[in-house]
Amino acid sequence: MLFALYRIGIFIALNTPIRAGYRIAAFASSLYAFFSLADRDALNDNLKQLFPDYEDDRLKSIASQIFINFGKYLVDFFRFSLIDADYIKRYVKVEGRHHLDEVLKQKKGAILTSAHIGNWELGGVALAALGFPLSVVALTHKQDNIDKFFTQQRLEKGVGVIPVGIAVRRCFKVLANNGAIALVSDRDYFDNGLEVEFFGKKAIIPKGPALFSRRCLAPIVPVFMLRNKDDTFTLKILEPIMPVHTHNEHEDLICVTEKVIKVIEDVVKENPEQWFVFKRFWEKMGRGRG
Predict the structure, then answer these.
(1) Most buried among 71, 137, 185, 188, by the most CB within 10 A?
(2) Cα-flanking dihedrals φ and ψ of residue 276, to 5°?
(3) Number of H helices, E strands in the chain
(4) In angstroms, rounded to a whole number, what is the distance separating the alpha carbons of residues 194 and 246?
(5) pTM
(6) Domain spans of the chain, in order of start
(7) What letter does residue 84 receive in the DSSP assignment?
(8) 110 forms bridges with which residues in the sheet?
(9) CA 59 to each of CA 30, 51, 53, 201, 271: distance values in angstroms, whole numbers, following the listed order
(10) Residue 98, Cα to own-chain centre: how many angstroms?
(11) pLDDT of 223
């Protein structure tokens, strides 16, 4: 059923002008939000942690925009086959490219970290189009046909895919060849992350970026593809976070992860209507095993 819905979405996205596709997505997303009480409640709870002083009406307005922006994100993903260098030139403004260029000059590879915000998938396509050797670490979808679809969408645009199950060895190999690996670093799916403070409350955050950085001495480069009000994008490549390697691995990982999550926190706070986390972020956060 879910794959059938994806196929319908792909057909609409590829056979309508992009503005019309966005309008259809906005309508469908708003309709879904109306009936999805659980997702709405989760978003509102997350937003209350970000903005404890905001009134409920303002939080609900942001939540509604999150649903709409997520619908637009899907339209962009479905249209990957239409994205080329001309699209990137017309619709994507790149800021801070020199940060990534300088990191790769060190010949240690680059660890790109982002979050479920804006359009991280399109960000990967843009980086590949700009000539950066990029591989993304991706969760395997439970349905094989959907997993194959997601993988094919990325591969066709020059983005390598590293399944989570074999990620460690493959990531080390990419970094050793001075490539870039990309990880979405705001949610831990395996309960083996690190406990750090996120928006004033303890949360379990993936330790992958810090771990690869420490062991390969590779800098971490925060990268975010953010949607502008006119539905163009800004690809923000921020100042790198340098590796830390002392006698205490756990403290090193905490130190670097805190720096990573602080950057994500700043970006989320500036763009809350683009942060796509439809589960209660701080719910059932057990302690990470470090």
Answers:
(1) 185
(2) -100, 80
(3) 11, 9
(4) 18
(5) 0.92
(6) 1-82, 84-274
(7) -
(8) 180
(9) 15, 8, 10, 19, 13
(10) 21
(11) 98
